Known about the structure:
Layout: E1 2-9, E2 25-33, H1 44-53, H2 68-96, E3 103-110, E4 145-151
Antiparallel strand pairs: 1-2, 3-4
Amino acid sequence: MLLKLSPNLTYADLSQIVELTHDFVEGYEAVNTIKLTIKDLTKVGIYLDILTKNGINQINSVRFDLSNDAREKAYQDALAKAGENAKSRAEGLAKGLGTHVKKIKSISLTQPMTPIYYNMAYSELKAETTATTLIQPKSVDLDVMVTVVFEI
């Protein structure tokens, strides 16, 4: 949880910004930021409803991501598929050239590993809503870039 307190300033023109005094502070704004981790995606809408019914009047984003364990498993699976794909293509190319793949000379890995988030922005949510907020997460994409150099 993060609490940010900022002054609400008033001034007639920009020249007054140079020397801020308490005379220009009209009040303060408190912004409380919280992060929820929900593993059961079917309950996301319910939690959003609970937040709005308890005074939250602005939700800036909802982000879907993988847990660390799920991300690592997906990443390892993607690496295995990328390696299989590289080998299969090299063997097909070598066959077309009338030869075969002898061995791997080098492997390099680029780790973009940035999932695509599903963001939703809300402003001034109404707590009077009776139906549960509907959230439809999209897929989380994971990219793996592997360069393999084979000896033929």
